[in-house]
Amino acid sequence: MNERYSRQVLFPGIGKEGQVKISSKHVLIIGAGALGSGSAEVLTRAGVGRITIIDRDYVEASNLQRQQLYTEEDVAEKLPKAAAAEKRLLAINSDVEVVSIIGDATPQLLEELVVGVDVMIDATDNFETRMAMNDVSQKYNVPWIYGACVGSFGMTFSIIPGKTPCLNCLLRSIPLQGMTCDTGGIISPAVQMVIAHQTAEALKMLVEDWAAVRTSFVSFDLWRNQYTSLKMSKAKFAGCLSCGEERTYPYLDHENMTKTTVLCGRDTVQIRPSSVGEISLERLAGQLSSLGYVVKGNPYLLSVEMGEERMVIFQDGRALIHGTKDLTHAKSIYQRILG
Ligand SMILES: [Zn+2]
């Protein structure tokens, strides 16, 4: 066994056998913000065989306080988080196969990505994606680890299909929706605490120590010194549409996915085109420059200054419009630039 993992192999919960299992497993991380970059780093250092990480955003200065994979250079280059994460993760451990995807974790894409995955980690900032992950988990029998944090508060729960209640079941007893899009700020230790819980659970699942997996719902507040662990064994709901007998996986209904969304806690609207196809950023940059727009970019995206607003366009035609929360206004800007 590689010297690199000697301390982890010495740990009785893992051992040589556990390390072999870890190195043969595939983890899918949805989101490369604070939770995603932390989980990805821990699991990369632990020697997971393959890590797929997906994110729709790019690195900004306000991320550096807590998103541990990123640097000032990534901010200056406006690198997409997935691309910056891949670069850093491979520098940490080149044994790990890292697959990075710059894009939106739509139900359709999640159904493609989940094939062959052993564990999914929730590092997203929105409820729609979490519910889609939850349905994908049940449909393809892949466990996932819910995690969320805001301020000094965080919570986490491990969801194993056929064993624990699912996120849709939990909604009947815990008001989780309110947690997902807060603008109230956040401290890094709260993020780290959720990452510690999520990655410890992930390691237990990767070494197949199912008896060790936590079955309670954890929430904590590091500023108020509170730590709560709630038993969830009775939360499973027989009529649940995601995990019950009459299941329909309601959150995988592609028609229900919104194409225009206000991003969490930011003056930013995301617009996803209905037909997916690569656009030539180079050609578009040329056209926009000749029309007098100030355009900057890298191989992954273009940033266009437009007075009050700034529009960032990705290769798949998806765009972030900064400086507005008005969906109609954002759509008119998108139309003006991309027709
Ligand atoms: Zn359920």
The H/E string reads: HHEHEHHEHEHEEHHEEEEHEEEEH
Class of secondary structure makeup: alpha/beta
Largest sheet: 8 strands, mixed
Q: Segments where pLDDT lies below 50 for 5+ residues? A: none
Tell me the total number of β-strands.
14
- The proportion of residues in beta strands is 15-25%
Which value, in Å, is the CA radius of gyration? Answer: 20 Å
Bound molecules: zinc ion
| Shape designation | globular
Mean pLDDT: 92
Number of helices in the DSSP assignment = 11
How helical, in percent, are the residues?
A: 25-40%
Spatially, the strands of the biggest sheet line up as 3-2-1-4-5-6-7-8
State the end-to-end CA separation.
56 Å
Could you characterize what this model shows?
By secondary structure, this protein is an alpha/beta fold. The chain has eleven helices and 14 strands. The protein has an eight-stranded mixed sheet with strand order 3-2-1-4-5-6-7-8, with helices on both faces. A six-stranded antiparallel sheet has the order 9-10-14-13-12-11, with helices on one face. Helix 3 runs parallel beside helix 5 (81-92) and helix 3 crosses helix 9. The mean pLDDT is 92. It binds zinc ion. The site of zinc ion has 8 residues, from helix 8.
In short:
This protein is an alpha/beta fold and 339 residues long. Helices cover 32% and strands 22% of the residues.
Tag the structure with descriptive keywords:
single chain, 339 residues, alpha/beta, binds zinc ion
Topology:
Layout: H1 6-10, H2 15-22, E1 26-30, H3 34-46, E2 50-55, H4 72-77, H5 81-92, E3 97-102, H6 107-113, E4 119-122, H7 127-140, E5 144-150, E6 153-159, H8 167-170, H9 188-206, E7 217-221, E8 226-230, E9 260-262, E10 268-271, H10 281-290, E11 294-298, E12 301-306, E13 309-314, E14 319-322, H11 327-338
Parallel strand pairs: 1-2, 1-4, 2-3, 4-5
Antiparallel strand pairs: 5-6, 6-7, 7-8, 9-10, 10-14, 11-12, 12-13, 13-14
Helix pairs in contact: 3-5, 3-9
This protein binds zinc ion (ZN).
Residues 165-166, 168-169, 237, 240, 242-243 line the site of zinc ion.
